[in-house]
Amino acid sequence: MPGSFAYRRVFSSTVTRRWFFSGNLLALFSLLSLVLMSLASCASNASGKIPLTMWYYNGGVDDNVVARVNQAFPNIDLTAVKVNDYENKVRTALAGHSGIPDILFVTSDVANYYPDEDQFLDLRTVGADDIKSEYLPWKWNLGVAPDGRVIALPTDTGPTALFYRADIFAKAGLPTDPAQVAASIKTWDDYLQAAVTLKNATHGSSYLIDNAQTVFIQMLAQSRTQFLTPSGKYVADQQYMKTIWDMTAKAVKLGADAKVQVRTPAWNEAVSNGYIAGFVGAAWMKQLVQTAGPNTAGQWRVAAAPGGPGNYGGSFLGVTAATQHPKEAFEVAKWIESPANQLVAYQDIHIYPSTYAALDSAVANQNESFYGGQDTTSVFAAAAKVIPTFYESPYDRAINTAFTDQVDLMDFQGKDPTQAWNDAQRLAQRELLR
């Protein structure tokens, strides 16, 4: 037995040594080689440039600006991917902590990403504070997570105004000059009264409100308070929200809206044939109107919104914590959203700027033939510069849906406003318990 043990010991040792040198050592060398190659690829690619990846969605950024990144940064090789089903792909990547790009566009619901703030680089660490003053304060603050981490730079904004058909206003006996319209339609009550006047004067062939949900959304867009406080307290059962709700219900009761939902073929047709003669909407809707009603060119105007300045929409651009090149990724993001490139994007694809320099540029403030020679940029800029700072929470999208679904039931199915209000409160509270 001792001899047998010695044999097994020698055999085991021999095999182990042979296996180590013939297998493990080669495997170790291979692994080391892969690590070195990986480290090398993190530093640069085959061309010696720093590789960066960026995800964005159609309309989120100007393709012409993206195409110039590598020219502006000769040491960087940016791979920019336009992603379909954008939010689902981003959510999947963040949840799996895998395949996350260096630079990431974030939709207007930036608060939905606050719970994932640790997956974003705090842009203060790479110089964001140096450019903060270039941007509209309220927009900048939306890219700041609750703990103070700056997770994204502002891209575009959605300041709101009253769009209206000057020719149909004239037929209805309403003022047509934007300054006069703004002076006569200062409040939402004024707006509803004008809507009734226009409907009656045109015998129901034209409306100044496309649907009741627009009233709710745009009044909320003007509110300093949304649904929750920064401390997480639900406040949408208070008087400010009831005031918004009651005005929305009043629009329905008066029969002042066209009951046509936005972003539908029916809305496009209604804009084209004059059934929709006005609405309160964001700056980015200028292009929707032009696309829907090319035959109405020269007839549209824009005036200050009733109730004051508001914002509806606008995206962000962040650098992820997954990047191996935080400084370089930030420099690219900063360049893409610089005032000069925001101005280019506004000219190319009509996304409204978030920087003062772009808003004030003579290039942006031009007379527009579709809007009867009016400089509409100045109207939206006046609103953008005075929009109050407001807080959005990760729950806002779901809670908003609880309310707007009930608004639609009032508008399209005649649901009792009180019952709809109570149901909206119940459904909103349920969302908070998920």
Outline the structure in words.
The chain has helices at residues 2-43, 63-67, 69-72, 86-96, 137-142, 166-171, 178-184, 188-201, 212-221, 239-253, 265-273, 285-292, 326-336, 339-349, 356-360, 376-384, 396-413, 417-432; strands spanning 50-56, 76-82, 103-106, 153-154, 160-165, 278-282, 300-304, 316-319. The chain has 434 residues and is α/β, with parallel strands linked by helices. The chain folds into two domains: 50-157 and 314-360, 3-Layer(aba) Sandwich (D-Maltodextrin-Binding Protein, domain 2), CATH 3.40.190.10; 160-312 and 386-432, Periplasmic binding protein-like II (D-Maltodextrin-Binding Protein, domain 2), CATH 3.40.190.10. Helix 9 (212-221) packs antiparallel against helix 17 (396-413) and helix 11 crosses helix 12 (285-292). The longest helix has 42 residues, at 2-43. It is globular and about 70 Å long. The termini are far apart. Residues 1-42 have low confidence and may be disordered.
